[in-house]
Amino acid sequence: SQQGEEDPQALSIQEGENATMNCSYKTSINNLQWYRQNSGRGLVHLILIRSNEREKHSGRLRVTLDTSKKSSSLLITASRAADTASYFCATDGRDDKIIFGKGTRLHILP
Amino acid sequence: GAVVSQHPSRVICKSGTSVKIECRSLDFQATTMFWYRQFPKKSLMLMATSNEGSKATYEQGVEKDKFLINHASLTLSTLTVTSAHPEDSSFYICSAHNPGQSNEKLFFGSGTQLSVL
Prior knowledge:
The complex is a heterodimer.
Chain A: E1 5-7, E2 10-14, E3 19-24, E4 31-37, E5 43-50, E6 55-58, E7 61-66, E8 71-76, E9 85-92, E10 98-100, E11 104-109
Parallel strand pairs in A: 2-11
Antiparallel strand pairs in A: 1-3, 3-8, 4-5, 4-9, 6-7, 7-8, 9-10, 9-11
Chain B: E1 4-7, E2 10-13, E3 19-25, E4 32-38, E5 44-51, E6 57-58, E7 67-73, E8 76-81, E9 90-98, E10 102-108, E11 112-116
Parallel strand pairs in B: 2-11
Antiparallel strand pairs in B: 1-3, 3-8, 4-5, 4-9, 5-6, 7-8, 9-10, 9-11
């Protein structure tokens, strides 16, 4: 069954603005990951945050994790047209399986 | 990084035929690969875990006889959709961990868009 659930499901913002996507999950985790998917393509790993971490940065990406609320957020700063894609959070489950959320479709307007 | 190659990227077939999709790890050995299915604008649903040298582990609700998985070597897993029907039309994606790097991060193939007429 699906573990993570992102919101919003779809987000359109102007180029240059910041984009924030949220993810909630149900069970305890060891880590949470964010992936990006361009239309009709495979997924690309963006960032991993462990359960004992609260915040992590990678370039224009900032991820937070609140294990008490079972939620995470992905912030993309100074968005670009090339950031248009779907973004998924993923949590580790039983037997090394990674379970994906429903995703947020991000559209950067020129 | 690590490269996972998936082939074909797109296939159109007639109802009743079987389709084989290949997933290769190009620069690492993958004892475990994962097969996902994705409907338009939806998330990835894990179908099965492919284990090298042993039987695949299927998720609940996934028909083993319908979706045959073979993981004959450390670099190749195949998914065969048998007797395909229009409802099998979907985007299929494989993935693998690179044990040399991390058992947490997944590397994905580019996906296969299956259209059954």
